[in-house]
Every structure is written in structure tokens, then in C-alpha cells.
Amino acid sequence: MPVYVQHEVLARINDVFNAEALWQAPGLSLFSRRPLLRDLLERSPREQRGRAATRCFSHVTLMLPQDEVDDDRHLTRGARVRDLAQSLAALHQKDFGDLLGADEVRYQVVGMDALQPGEVKVKFGHAVYLPAPGEQVLYQISASRDSAIWQPVCAVYPDQRLTLVGQDAAQATYAVPGWPFGDGGILLINDGPDAPLEVQVKPKDALDCRFDAANNYYVIRARGGAGPRLLLRIERAGQAAQAKPASTPSARPPAVWKTRGLPDNEMTAMPLAAPQPAAVPALAPENDATYAPVARHRITLAALALPRLSRYRDTGAQALEVGLSSNLGLAAPGKDSLIRFAVDDADEVHAITQDGRQRVAVPSRFAPSDGAAVQLHAAPAGMADRYAALLGLDDGPSQPAAAGTRLVFGRGMPSLAGLRVLDAPDFLRQQDGSAAASADRLGLSRNAFSWEASSDGLRIVRLAETQALFHLDEALRLVAPIETATADAPYVIPSGHHLVAGHYVLRFDA
């Protein structure tokens, strides 16, 4: 395999800012002098014919002890670093001008904590490129182990043909955070802005690399498929996969704790009523139709509606956090969760894994482990002022819904209590750091609505006039807000459709 990145250490340098001391040792004895930068470039040409060099490398990165670079920045505003780069470029042009052709000589000088006094690291090669002033980025490369927390790896520029990413910056152009494979690397080949970036494993038998078209990233594993994986994402500059989160409406009614006049004086945080579009007329009452057996009616928690906490800022609510276990079942925050999602009082949604915490775009899809997929849906337009996102639950809890029996759903009501998974401490955090008694106090009334399963759907009757209810179709698209739903004229949710109340997106199956 060619040496894509030439990496050497120059030791015992009295003055690391002295270009001549780095370039060539004094004297003519070839056997006594230490190899310095000129010798390294001469011994490793970019191209050669036989033993004669026909082209040399022209882009070089120098790493000096970090303390030296910091002192230069403090004392001379970086003048010695700039002079060193300019002087080395001039020496390079003078001694190798006939081997440069049209290539421009470029030097970069940076600091490095690991270097000892008097040491200088030199890096050049086929996969070392320094952008021209003002050159725009063509691609952004990032890596992840769980598809939720993405770490930046590097940028690729239009004229940067080869980039090698891998375990460390000594053997590769750039190190990949969390690289779990030891040897080997990924070579990125850029044949210009009109050609897609080509991805190759180096050496070929070191790793398996396949493109996951559904998620738009590469999945890298050790040869044979065993052990950890690494995800590599390539994004065209200006067309990043992570879109900006939806803008927050500039004006929203504030939230207040509203007393219901109940014996226990428990209060619900309800945003003051905002104008809503006219409701779609409810379907006609049930006809004398034959309905399915009782066992076939079920209510399933299909998703969690993550609220915009800015609407409830006056209540002290600071963050709501939901965790998913290794089998994507719900897990309390801080427990053995594979991935967690949090929404804060700025209405920003974050993903949290063992690799850290990162703001995520909505909508997004995550694959935190093999065979585990999580979908974060955007709230439909008619609900976006209330909800930041809908967190899909492919295997959410489910309960039977007995036909012909009318029951009440709401905070503290026993009906479908197993679906109110956020009715517990620790999901909602207050500004003082304490846990709220129940996240259900945000937006869910004690008596929100009553329901009855029937052959034509789930018959809904609104019980609290301030309770927001929404009808969504099979694909979680808004059908209508439910404004009018009385005992005489209930609102009917067809089989396969969803009802949103508080944090809960409930699907009726018949």
C-alpha cells in the first residue's frame, strides 16, 4: 500500500522557529547529519521515473510544541509562526522549483501538546492537502457509533483529491473520533465537484464498508462483520442532511397552572387558548352495523408528542427527557437506556447516548444499534405551535378496548393508565433541578375525554373544554383538531388513525 501520509519527527532542534535549522543541516557530510525537512522531501518524491524524481510534494504541515506556539501568539501575535511558514515555502520553491510544475507551495504551522521541547513533526504526502485562502468546502465528513451523536472528522475541498481517515492523525490525514478498528483506514477520492466522492477501504482486506442508502451513511465493520461498527457520513456543503430545526413561532400564549376545583387541588399546566381552525364536522353517529369481536379492538401508544416547553415556562418546566432501552422500550431517564431524547425550554430537541449529547434536527431517523431504528417525526403544521416533535414507538404499549363500554382518559384516571408512560417522576425537570411529580401535568387534564370502541371507530367525547385534541391519519398527518365532540355527536377516529392528547399519540386498531 502506498504511503498516503508521510509522518516524521525532527528532534534536537534548538530553535523550532528557525527555518534553516529545519530545512537542511550545515556541512556536506551525508553520514553524520540528521535527516531534516529537505532530505525527507527528497527521499519521498510525489512521482519518479526510475530513481529520478519528476515531481515533489508541495503541501507540508509542521507541528511545533504547543507551548512554543502559545508563547509566540502571546508575545508577537503569531509573527514567528507566519515567518516560519513563509521562509520554508521560499526554501522549498528555491530548491525544488523544477519539480513543482504548476503546484503552489503551501505550509501550515500548528501546535501539538504531545511534542517535547525541541521536537517538530512533519506531515506531507499524497493525502495531505492545505486549502488555498478563501477556498470553499466541498464536503463535510462526520462519524458516529450510534447515528445520534455525530463527531466532525474533516472537510474536503474541491482541489483535495485524496483524504485518508483512520485511527490517528499520524498514519492518516485525519483521525476519526471513536475509531474502533486499530489498523486500516478509509480513503476518500475526490475527482471534482461533478463526481461523487468515492470511498475505499485501505488496505482492502482490513475492513468491510457498505453504504446504507436508507440512512445516507456508510457502515464500517471489521472484516467478517463481528465487533463494533462505525458510521461515516458524507455531506455536500450547503446540502447537509441535518436541516435546521423548524423556526419557533414568535408569539405564543403563556402557560399557567389552572385550578380545576378538584378535592386534591391538583393543577394542570394548560396554555391559554389560542385561535384554532374550524374543526372538520364529526362523522355521523353509529348505524346499526355489526362490529368486530371485543378482542380485536386495541389502543396502542404509537408515539410520544414532545411539547414545546417554552409554552410552559411560567411553570418552571426546564426539560422533558425520555429514554429508550436496548429493545426500544421506554426507559426512565438515567437508567439503562440505549438512546434518550430531551426537549428543553428553548424548544430544542437533543439526542443523548453514551457518546454525549447533541442537538438534532426534526425530522430525523436514528439507528443506535443493529436492528434498532427510531424515527423522530416533525409535528404536523397545525400542531407545531404546541409540539416540538413526535417520537415514534414501533413497539409501544397496547391495551384492549372493550366495545360498547365508555371509559375516561386523563391524568389520574385508571382507563388506559398503562399508556400514560410519563405519569411518573424524573421525566420532567424543573428550573431548580428537581423532578416534577408528573409530566402529565403539562397539557393533559384529569378528565380529558371519554372513548368508546365501536365498529366504525373510536368514539370520542370531549370532557374538558381546554383540553387540546388532534386527529391524525395512519401516517401521523393532521386530519383536524377536535373542537366539537359531545355525547350526542361524538367525534369518530377510524381504525388505524391516531388521537393526540397531551404527550400521547394513541392509535385505535379494530
Q: What's the CATH architecture of the largest domain?
A: Sandwich
List the uncertain runs. 240-265, 272-285, 290-295
User: What count of domains describes the coordinates?
Assistant: 3
Largest sheet: 9 strands, antiparallel
Mean residue pLDDT: 86
Question: What's the total number of strands?
Answer: 36
Tell me the name of the CATH class of the largest domain. Answer: Mainly Beta
Shape: elongated
Rg computed from alpha carbons, rounded to a whole number of angstroms: 31 Å
Describe this structure in words.
Helix content is 8%, strand content 36%. Strands 18, 24, 25, 26, 27, 32, 33, 35 and 36 form a nine-stranded antiparallel sheet that branches. It is built from four helices and 36 strands. By secondary structure, the chain is mainly beta. It folds into three domains: 119 residues, hypothetical protein PF0899 fold (2-Layer Sandwich), CATH 3.30.2320; 98 residues; 255 residues, Sandwich (Tumour Suppressor Smad4), CATH 2.60.200.20.
Summarize the structure.
By secondary structure, the chain is mainly beta. Helix content is 8%, strand content 36%. The strands form eight sheets. Strands 18, 24, 25, 26, 27, 32, 33, 35 and 36 form a nine-stranded antiparallel sheet that branches. Strands 19, 20, 21, 22, 23 and 29 form a six-stranded antiparallel sheet that branches. It has a five-stranded antiparallel sheet with strand order 8-7-15-14-13, with no helix packed on it.
